[in-house]
Amino acid sequence: DIKEQETSENLSRKVENQNEKSHDHVKITFEEGQLSYLGADVDHLPKEIIKNYSKITSQLDLSFNKLRSLSGVEHFTLLKELVLDNNELSDNISFPPLTDLHTLTLNKNMFSDLHGLLEKLIQNYPNLTYLSLLGNKACPNELSASDKDDEDYQRYRYYVLYKLPGLKFLDSTPVIAKEVGEA
């Protein structure tokens, strides 16, 4: 009996140590409405995060994961900013409607269909003012393809601004009146 108890205690300690180690590199940080869950290599949003933070988060950063879906994000009804850089999001994604969202960054994902992506954003994010798509095939510049140049990128900017005329920033660059007129 004593041996079994010692073995059980040792096993419990090992599990606790493994849990501590596994969470050392992945930290959930929450401060003043801003939640960051970076580098966890998850392909979906964990239920615990949805349960504990969805009703109090206005800024959500899920960068450097392996997200392929935004399932669960629809519970974050107060979101104003959503950062999804460096994930595995692609053209088949469904974007949850979030009417207060004004900032969306999708840098370095797998989007290639610009028209389809913009239609989804128009439908689900009517108040979007900041959008960044750098590092996707849908955004033609040196980050996404070596055969693209400044003219390709400018045409892309005009098209995005034509479809989303309320943008104030596109790809970390302020939108200027001349561009909106040209678009």
Folded structure, characterized:
The chain has 183 residues and is of the alpha/beta class. It has a single domain (26-182), classed as Leucine-rich repeat, LRR (right-handed beta-alpha superhelix). Helix content is 33%, strand content 13%. The chain is built from five helices and eight strands; from the N terminus they run H-E-E-H-E-E-E-H-E-H-E-E-H. Strands 1-2-3-4-5-6-7-8 form an eight-stranded mixed sheet, with helices on one face. The longest helix is centred in the N-terminal third of the chain and has 23 residues, at 2-24. The protein is globular and about 45 Å long. It starts with a helix and ends with a helix.
Q: Helix tally?
A: 5
Distance between the termini: 78 Å
* Helical/strand content category: alpha/beta
Strand content: 5-15%
Q: What is the CATH first-level class name?
A: Alpha Beta
Q: If you compute it from the alpha carbons, what radius of gyration comes out, rounded to the nearest whole angstrom?
A: 21 Å
Element layout with pairings:
Blueprint: H1 2-24, E1 28-31, E2 34-37, H2 47-53, E3 59-61, E4 81-83, E5 103-105, H3 114-124, E6 130-132, H4 150-163, E7 169-170, E8 173-174, H5 177-182
Parallel strand pairs: 2-3, 3-4, 4-5, 5-6, 6-7
Antiparallel strand pairs: 1-2, 7-8
Name its key features.
single chain, 183 residues, alpha/beta, eight-stranded mixed β-sheet, 33% helix, globular
